[in-house]
Amino acid sequence: MGKFKLDDIDHQILDILIDNTRTPFTDIAKKLLISAGTVHVRVKKMEDAGIIKGSSLTLDYNKLGYSFIAYVGIFLEKTHQTKFVLERLSHIPSVTIAHITTGKFNIFCKIRAKNTQHAKEIIFSIDDIDGVSRTETMISLEESFNDKKRLMHSIFNEI
To answer: Which structural domains are found in the chain, ordered by start?
Structure first.
């Protein structure tokens, strides 16, 4: 499938939605001086093309008591165990992201925990998965930025 062509209106719609996916189409239309129907049609077109995949909700995990973030590099005994280990990781709710990687680790994941004790329990449960030979953990002291817009604008400039 070829690249989907986006114009400036599409860029502006995405720009607004990336800030707040719950922005009503009527509000987007007013801001961009176009009809709500146009916004609806363009968003639907981007969804059909697979550019927009659902929408997400951003939670403040600190307010929910999950302020501890760590990244866990997982070493496997054998690489053919990757699928099995990923399946087991998917059953640990505090493992929020997992990537198959090249380099030092076979799998690299992000965990969210209540505190260091809770994180230790999560890491030990990862260590207990058959096929995991060992893990290496890095504690996040602070998320300095999480900016999807910069990449999006960079992509727009390339198109």
So the answer is: 8-56 (1.10.10.10), 68-140 (3.30.70.920)
